[in-house]
Automatic annotation (TrEMBL):
It comes from Ideonella livida. Residues 9-172 form the Response regulatory domain. PANTHER family: BIOFILM ARCHITECTURE MAINTENANCE PROTEIN MBAA, DIGUANYLATE CYCLASE DGCP. InterPro entries: Biofilm_reg_signaling, CheY-like_superfamily, EAL_dom, EAL_sf, GGDEF_dom, Nucleotide_cyclase, PAC, PAS. It holds the Pfam family PAS_9. Residues 272-326 form the PAC domain. Residues 500-756 form the EAL domain. SUPFAM superfamilies: CheY-like (SSF52172), EAL domain-like (SSF141868), Nucleotide cyclase (SSF55073), PYP-like sensor domain (PAS domain) (SSF55785). It catalyses: 3',3'-c-di-GMP + H2O = 5'-phosphoguanylyl(3'->5')guanosine + H(+). One of its GO terms (molecular function) is cyclic-guanylate-specific phosphodiesterase activity. This is EAL domain-containing protein. Residues 198-246 form the PAS domain. One of its GO terms (biological process) is cellular response to nitric oxide.
Amino acid sequence: MPLPTANRRILLIDDMPSIHEDFRKLLAPHAGRPAATAAASTLDDDEAWLFGDAPTRAAASTAPAVPLDADFELHSAHQGQEGLRCVHDALAADQPFAMAFVDMRMPPGWDGVQTIQALWQADPQLQVVICTAYTDHSWAQVMQQLQANDRLLVVKKPFDAIEVQQAARALVHKWSLARAANATREGLEQAVAERTQALRVHERAVEAALDPILITGPVEEGLTIRYANPAFHKVTGYTPDEVLGRHPRFLVGQETGQAGLHGLGRAIARGREGEALLRSYRRDGSLFWNQVRLAPVPDEHGQATHFVGILHDVTEARAQAQALAHQAQHDALTGLPNRVLLQDRLRHAIAQARREQTGLAVLWLDLDHFKDINDSLGHAVGDALLQGLAQRLQSAVRASDTVARLGGDEFVLLLPGIHRQGDAGTVARKVLAALSTPILAQGHALRASTSVGVALFPQDGHDPEQLLMHADIAMYRAKAEGRNTFQYFCGEMSQEAREREALTQELHQALERQEFELHYQPRWCLASGRMTGAEALLRWRHPHKGLISPAVFIPVAEETGLIVPIGQWVLQAACRQASLWRTQGGPDLPLSVAVNVSARQFRQHDLRRTVEQALAETGLPAHQLELEITESLMMQRHEVVADTLQALRARGVRLAIDDFGTGYASLSYLRDFPLDLLKIDRSFVQQLHERATDRAIVQAVQSLARAMALTVVAEGIETQAQLDMLRHLGCDQAQGFLLARPLPAPALADCWAQGPHPLLRGVTAAPPPGPT
């Protein structure tokens, strides 16, 4: 705090003008004089000081001393009331007087006592000297009236010059000392007040804190608890009386071996801050996870006199973090490890197998036709099936094995300690057997047919990515081998997988480059011999490989989802061609075109909108378009399929069941769906003239169709004997290589122009004899 400057302001209150002149000579001799005179006076004063004729200089102090050669700033008043006004004015201007000389008698106004009392009431810090020439005063009474104190001196007239100067100098310096002391005291009081308020704030913060706070003594005194805030009681259940004087270790119960405790102990021994996560116990014995932070409170020598401990209950946050970690590593539907956790465990298993020179097996499982179940019975049933499947898989393997779900209907088994293919095959057979019995899923007893691929470490891969990829490749081979079986990975499969991936990429390019084309297999009326329509069959004319069979690329298109855009292209192209035939041949060329619709097109696309768009863009009448669906599609999501087919039938589109008799649809589907044609599968036609059972089936289908006003079409006619038998059984229409192979669009128009088929002209002959 800066010290005040020296105050040389003095007030003289006396009724005699001569006294004022004398005081001015004594206290302000340089005022109004030339500088040289003032300098001489200063030299005189210094001489007096050096040779002892002047009073002693003031000792150094914190208050500014008035130099011996300095003039005082003398102000005059001739009556007490006037002097009081001067004091008020000085205080208002923040230029108070340091002292005042007051005459004892100043008629007709106040006397000295009254004046001093008034002055001190206005400015209690004012130093006062009473000036008097009389001896008739009772100084004891005067002192009693003024409550004699160290602010008052008495100087008798006639004045001694040195006495006046010393009194002025001493009291002015005393005023400065008092002013400095007051400033220091006020500063200290303010600092104490601020510190007290800060302590009050800190105390309130500790009291209001949501986290428990403990204050302990030093290590030398046993680190006993000196204070516990209200939050400590709220979190732990212990009252202050139950914990004061105890070591905080009681919170961990018998678990004194926790690693976090050792870390805190080292921090305490070194007098440093420490932090640890501890298992702690409430008063009722319940566990909570306690994040403790301990900080020493050092004295001026750096020695810890106390320790402050802040406890934070992280039980809920820890549980949430564990739940999030579990969610990040586990499948939400089944609770099984997901791909992330599987790969982590697989890395560790491979490392362990390397150290111990053992092996392991990876089994990749994929449900067969799971999408059919999901679409026919709904996602809730599909989810229940996956949950039941997960339980079956876990019960079929060891506790040390890992069952993981990668998503959808794909599962992986990690089997440590497997050395030979045969051991892995044993597990695969066990898994297939476990899944062979029905799983109850929301009231539906479902069998989970599964294809399994097996890869072994180290022979089939040295890292998780390789092993999983090779097990996946082997799984696809199992599907190709008929499904519901398992296959071991072999090197040839990698080449097949690469070829499969290349084929997928080429299919994408084929769509972009319009490498697809349609051929049309005619369908003939067995009664008239005339062509009634044609089935559109997809062909891929590869720029380098030539014509690629649908048997090669259609399965890949189905699995990759490319069948949807390819199917849209087929529908558009077939409708465009049929419309072109109609334009070229007129109403006399009423050929219908049949297009196969895959189950995936039904699932992933709005078929109604696609058909409407194709008819609108090509101008083909709806009755000249036939859509062929399979029995398995009819089983999927019965209501949705029925609604879609009803809408298409109402539009005029004709509907046919392809490969009838090979699926699992019940006869109720024939009743519920708006069908126009039944296409008998070629498997019933191939040995029709030799097997009575096949003839009976065809005849039964024909009778059923006739009763329901449906047209029957026989597929795969390859011999004259088959044709004759079908005509004898009353089949309506037929198609097959005997009658015509699939033709390009121009050739089909020429075939129509030739009229009835040569093999179908004339009267139906008696049926050839067949075995009984």
